[in-house]
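Methods — Computational structure assignment.
A single polypeptide chain was analysed. Its primary sequence is given first, followed by the predicted tertiary structure written as structure tokens.
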Amino acid sequence: MTIRTKLISGFTLLALLLVIVATVGNWGIGKMNRLLDEYARTEGKLVEYAQRGRANINMLRRFEKDAFINIESPGKVAEYVKQWQETVERTVKRLDAMEALLGKLEKGHDADFAKKHKEVVTSLRGDLNTYAAGFNTVIDKIKTGEIKSTQEANSAIGAYKATIHKMEAQILAMAEESDKLMEAGMLEADKIEHGLVITIVSVSLIAVMLAICLIVAILRSIMKPLGAMRAMVTDMAQGEGDLTR
């Protein structure tokens, strides 16, 4: 095999290894980015929506208390009822967004989680409707004068307290479970990154070793003929050379 052929073969193999390193790196980074992006758009958003939904539920309770405390001021009651109704609307929109995300997740990487929590969202809707109906009933009785004091209003809404507490517990549990699922996704991304680093380092080491072997082979290919030529010249200088070789 000529030096030219050896050089071409060696550098071709070296280039191939570099292409493999680049391909593996690009594939791994792409997969990791897709995974992180998917978790950010599903579990990450689900955590955000659940926490905001929980905040909305707390606001409902606050406006409820404010309306009852100001029961002797119809204007203030109307103001707090309006804010309460707006918060109900925001809570419904938040549940809609959560349900849409769960629908995407059901077709994605965790169908069981999505199916379970779609049932939770359905339960939250039902509980919200039950609580809203109870609150509106108490407000109607306040308007008609049937309920005249804060104590009477709190007693009347008492039958629906368990419902609102249940909603708080359910949406908090959903946020925590979504957060855990997102953490699992981060761990999976870390594993991909670790495997990617090992692969790139391994292939790079092989490429370095090949380059060293290639350099040694080239040097030997060059030095061996030069050594033979030097020996021949030395023999000729001493009058012992064979010009027929």
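Note: The helical segments are 3-69, 74-106, 111-144, 150-157, 161-237.
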